[in-house]
UniProtKB/TrEMBL annotation:
Keywords: Methyltransferase, Polyamine biosynthesis, Transferase. One of its GO terms (molecular function) is methyltransferase activity. It comes from Glutamicibacter mishrai. The keyword Lipid biosynthesis does not apply. It comes from the Bacteria. GO terms for biological process: methylation; polyamine biosynthetic process. This is Methyltransferase domain-containing protein.
Length: 267
C-alpha cells in the first residue's frame, strides 16, 4: 500500500505515520491531503477535522439518528483520503454519504487502500464539485462539507455567492454548510468567504485558533453556515478550547466584524 502512485491529476504518495500505529498520510502532488487510521476510523489527526467533529456530535447527536427511520445525509465536496467520511460512517448508523472526487484514479486508490465503506453507505462519485452540486435535489442533505483544494487554494468557482446558494438549496431544514478555508496571514480570502456566506445564509460562524484569526500565520478556518440557528451549546465551545490545538468559535456580530470591508465573491 505504501509508495508513489500515478493519478489523473499528478502523483499520490501514501506514507506511514512516523509516530507509528496502523496510520497513514496521503499526499497529493506533494501536499499532505489526509491522515487515516485504519484501526480506528474515529481518530482524526488534522486539526481542522477535529474542529469539524463537534459540529456533528453537538449539532447532530447520534441518538437522533437511529439508522432506520432517520439516516444522517452527508455530502463531501472533495474526497482526499475520505477521513471525515470514514468518521461519519463509524459514528452514525447507516449514514448515507456521497463523496465527490475529481480524480478517478485517486478515488480508486483511496477506496482500495483505506477501507472506505461501500455504497450505499459511502458512494464515491467521480466529478467536478462545481458541476455536481447544482445537479442535486433540493433539501436532500443534512450536512455539506466543502474541502476542495487545487494546491493550497480552493478553486474560485466553489467560493462564489452562486455556489453558496446552491449549497443552501441542497440543504434540508436545519442543515449546515461546513467549509474548510485555507488562507495566508492577510486573511483576505477568508474575509471574502465570510462576506459571501453572510450574503446568502442567515447564520454564519467560524472556527480557528487565535493566532490564525489575528493574522499571524497561514492556516485553516472552518466556516459554518445555516438558515437556522446553530444550536451547538456551551459544550461545543468547551470542546474547541480543550482541543490539542485550542480553537475559538466566532459567530454573529464577530463574523460581521471579521468580514468588514470585504466584498462577496461573485461569479
Amino acid at each position: 500500500m505504501l509508495g508513489e502512485f500515478p493519478i489523473d491529476t499528478g502523483t499520490a504518495i501514501i506514507e506511514a505515520d512516523p509516530y507509528g500505529g496502523n496510520r497513514y498520510i496521503l499526499k497529493v502532488n506533494g501536499v499532505p491531503s489526509s491522515h487515516v487510521d485504519l484501526d480506528d476510523p474515529t481518530y482524526l489527526d488534522f486539526e481542522y477535522m477535529r474542529w469539524m467533529e463537534p459540529i456533528f456530535t453537538y449539532g447532530f447527536p447520534a441518538e437522533d439518528y437511529d439508522g432506520r427511520a432517520r439516516k444522517l445525509r452527508v455530502l463531501h465536496l472533495g474526497g482526499g483520503g475520505c477521513s471525515m467520511a470514514r468518521w461519519v460512517a463509524a459514528s452514525y448508523e447507516n449514514a448515507r454519504q456521497v463523496v465527490v472526487e475529481l480524480d478517478a484514479k485517486l478515488a480508486e486508490l483511496v477506496r482500495t487502500s483505506f477501507d472506505v465503506p461501500r455504497a450505499p453507505l459511502v458512494r464515491l462519485r467521480v466529478g467536478d464539485a462545481g458541476q455536481v452540486l447544482p445537479t442535486l435535489s433540493e433539501e436532500s442533505r443534512d450536512v455539506i462539507i466543502r474541502d476542495v483544494f487545487a494546491g493550497s487554494t480552493t478553486p474560485r468557482e466553489l467560493t462564489t455567492v452562486d455556489y453558496a446558494r446552491q449549497a443552501q438549496r441542497v440543504l434540508d431544514g436545519g442543515g449546515v454548510y461546513i467549509m474548510n478555508c485555507g488562507d495566508t496571514a492577510d486573511l483576505a480570502g477568508a474575509k471574502a468567504e465570510a462576506a459571501t456566506l453572510l450574503e446568502v445564509f442567515e447564520h454564519v460562524a467560524m472556527i480557528a485558533d487565535p493566532p490564525m484569526l489575528k493574522g499571524r500565520r497561514y492556516g485553516n478556518i472552518v466556516f459554518l453556515a445555516s438558515d437556522e440557528p446553530l444550536s451547538l451549546g456551551a459544550g461545543f465551545e468547551r470542546n474547541l478550547r480543550t482541543a490539542p490545538l485550542p480553537a475559538q468559535l466566532v459567530s454573529g456580530a464577530g463574523v460581521q466584524r471579521f468580514a468588514a470591508g470585504a466584498s462577496p465573491i461573485l461569479p
